[in-house]
Amino acid sequence: MQASADVNQRIARLLAHLNPSMNNLQTEGSSNFRQENCRAKGGSPGFKVAILGAAGGVGQPLAMLMKMNPLVSVLHLYDVVNTPGVTADISHMDTGAVVRGFLGQQQLEDALTGMDLVIIPAGVPRKPGMTRDDLFNINAGIVRTLCEGISKCCPMAIVNLISNPVNSTVPIAAEVFKKAGTYDPRRLLGVTMLDVVRANTFVAEVLGLDPRDVDVPVVGGHAGVTILPLLSQVKPPCSLTQEETEYLTSRIQNGGTEVVEAKAGAGSATLSMAYAAVKFADACLRALRGDASVIQCAFVSSQVTELPFFASRVRLGRNGVEEIYPLGPLNEYERVGLEKAKKELGGSIEKGVSFVRK
Ligand SMILES: NC(=O)C1=CN([C@@H]2O[C@H](COP(=O)(O)OP(=O)(O)OC[C@H]3O[C@@H](n4cnc5c(N)ncnc54)[C@H](O)[C@@H]3O)[C@@H](O)[C@H]2O)C=CC1
Ligand SMILES: O=C([O-])CC(=O)C(=O)O
């Protein structure tokens, strides 16, 4: 009996490898197969991560990079199109994580069940001339549906929300979780890491340093003037002229638009975003593992200002956001920037909240 069960499991595994889109079909109702599959040879114990929107411009390189992350044992790739192909492709990488694909709304719940971390880059990107807020009408509904699934299937998962406009989609997610009774503000994080990545790069360029040695806190939100780099707090300490400060602030605030214009209608940042998303997801996983002093900027439920959500430096831990740091001393230029940021951010937050409450 045991021998024939083993043979059956091996055949099932082989079939799933030949056609990865069958993976989830094979696992349905077969907990033995699922357990086996989660411990593929070479696979190490680790975290279960789902990417929603995995076949997109951000999703594909993000999936590839997460497959390379040794902290990931199981990687679920969900999209409404093309996941069988992306899954087949990525599953051939000889790294530890086991990859499974999920296609279409009817497989969303299977994609989410049991996940520790859910990363969401689902939704439409900008074209030249558009603001991130112009994406609201389409992406708000997408984020709402996906978050309803999270509430139902993995309410304890850490959520990394990438879909724009982040300033509104994070409040949308929070409202969906509140409605479902599963909201834990510590576990919902809007990804603003690309602003930090850009700030480190551009500041390093001006200072003639290696970007890996530079750390710029970027606070506020993730659109235009709401992106507020705190250039007075750059590490290592440096002194920038007013001209350099204004140039850098504007370049960091408009980094997304710079890419949108260069891509000339073919979308927005995807590769640098995937890099930033993985950097951020890796920080979340290290914190979940119990590493101390994991500190990153993120757009989270916050009391740092009078607004209900704000991006600032946060310390991550086993439950998500464990501590939110105050903004620290700002210079006059940053104080003016903060007022502008708060004005726009307040409206975007309110728009997200009323989308769900209406
Ligand atoms: N937070 C940030 O710093 C950044 C955010 N973004 C945002 O990320 C989002 C994705 O950008 P791209 O990957 O370039 O767009 P894309 O159009 O290339 O990919 C989006 C993917 O989402 C999928 N999708 C659409 N509806 C879905 C649903 N209901 N469920 C699951 N998947 C669904 C699409 O099929 C597509 O594969 C955009 O909203 C963009 O503005 C992009 C770069 C930086
Ligand atoms: O600019 C966009 O639309 C995409 C994005 O958020 C970024 O690159 O920062």
UniProtKB/TrEMBL annotation:
Any GO BP: tricarboxylic acid cycle
Record CDD domains: MDH_glyoxysomal_mitochondrial
Domain Lactate/malate dehydrogenase C-terminal: start-end pairs: 192-355
Catalytic activity: (S)-malate + NAD(+) = oxaloacetate + NADH + H(+)
Gene3D superfamilies in the record: Lactate dehydrogenase/glycoside hydrolase, family 4, C-terminal, NAD(P)-binding Rossmann-like Domain
Keywords: Glyoxylate bypass, NAD, Oxidoreductase, Peroxisome, Tricarboxylic acid cycle
GO MF annotations, alphabetized: L-malate dehydrogenase (NAD+) activity
Residues annotated for NAD(+) binding in this entry: 53-59, 79, 139, 162-164, 273
Signal peptide: none
Ranges where the Lactate/malate dehydrogenase N-terminal domain occurs: 48-190
Ligand binding (substrate): 126, 132, 164, 198
GO annotation, cellular component aspect: chloroplast; peroxisome
Enzyme Commission designation: 1.1.1.37
Catalytic center residues: 222
Highest taxon of source: Eukaryota
Subcellular location: Peroxisome
Pfam families reported in the protein's UniProt record: Ldh_1_C, Ldh_1_N
Primary location group: other
PROSITE patterns for the chain: MDH
InterPro entries listed in its UniProt record: L-lactate/malate_DH, Lactate/malate_DH_C, Lactate/malate_DH_N, Lactate_DH/Glyco_Ohase_4_C, Malate_DH_AS, Malate_DH_type1, NAD(P)-bd_dom_sf
SUPFAM superfamilies, sorted: LDH C-terminal domain-like, NAD(P)-binding Rossmann-fold domains
Family, similarity comment: Belongs to the LDH/MDH superfamily. MDH type 1 family.
Quaternary structure (record): Homodimer.
Name recorded for this polypeptide: Malate dehydrogenase
